[in-house]
């Protein structure tokens, strides 16, 4: 997979390092000469250019990329890069960094963003996920398709504990994608039985989140 990253700061370089370790091709683009530190990520390609300029993106051959990551510290730049990547070059997957939570509402399909990553929101979600049992926690928003990745830890008193996945009447527009049970990560099948303490990860439409939380938190009748 070929990935272009706009922004070669600490965030961009860290992402590049992870992707390279996983065997992907990475191109780092930044307009600041001081950001071009080839020795820090020697296996990446580097381009000194303004990622908001069409000529720069032509030079980067963005049409060959499977993913573009807009990872600069400027939300305006990240939005422009995302829009150009999607509309001018047809990049299949565009991921954008949100620096200011007040701007998060802009990072959607209208600006070419498939996945918006807000560090403050992600950190607060991880804190909630660590301490919450029985409460739905939104981990990530997928702009394309209007869906969220949400998590809920099944409480001990849940009526669904001991129930097969296939016997649960799940809400529409929701999909159980993973069960985390202790140190195990399970791909759910219809025959799997839910247990108290399971961390359940769903992709769900925002309109279904409340219904899903009520279903999972319902207690057994005395």
Automatic annotation (TrEMBL):
It holds the Pfam family TrkA_N. GO terms for cellular component: plasma membrane. The keyword DNA damage does not apply. Keywords: Ion transport, NAD, Potassium, Potassium transport, Transport. Residues 137-218 form the RCK C-terminal domain. InterPro entries: K_uptake_TrkA, NAD(P)-bd_dom_sf, RCK_C, RCK_C_sf, RCK_N, Trk_Ktr_HKT_K-transport. Residues 1-117 form the RCK N-terminal domain. This is Trk system potassium uptake protein TrkA. It comes from Streptomyces klenkii.
């Amino acid at each position: 997979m070929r990935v272009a990253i706009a922004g070669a700061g600490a965030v961009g370089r860290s992402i590049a390092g992870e992707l390279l370790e996983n065997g992907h091709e990475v191109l780092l683009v930044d307009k600041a000469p001081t950001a071009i530190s080839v020795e820090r990520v020697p296996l990446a390609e580097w381009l000194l250019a303004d990622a908001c300029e069409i000529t720069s993106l032509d030079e980067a051959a963005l049409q060959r990329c499977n993913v573009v990551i807009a990872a600069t510290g400027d939300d305006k730049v990240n939005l422009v890069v995302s829009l150009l990547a999607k509309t001018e070059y047809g990049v299949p997957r565009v991921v954008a960094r949100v620096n200011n939570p007040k701007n998060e509402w802009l990072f959607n399909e209208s600006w070419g963003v498939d996945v918006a990553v807000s560090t403050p929101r992600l950190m607060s979600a991880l804190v909630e996920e660590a301490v919450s049992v029985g409460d739905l926690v939104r981990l990530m928003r997928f702009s394309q398709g209007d869906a969220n990745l949400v998590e809920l830890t099944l409480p001990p008193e849940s009526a669904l504990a001991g129930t097969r996945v296939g016997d649960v009447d799940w809400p529409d527009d929701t999909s159980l994608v993973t069960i985390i049970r202790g140190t195990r990560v399970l791909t759910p099948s219809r025959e799997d039985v839910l247990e108290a303490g399971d961390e359940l990860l769903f992709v769900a439409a925002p309109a279904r989140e409340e219904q899903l939380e009520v279903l999972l938190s319902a207690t057994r009748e005395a």
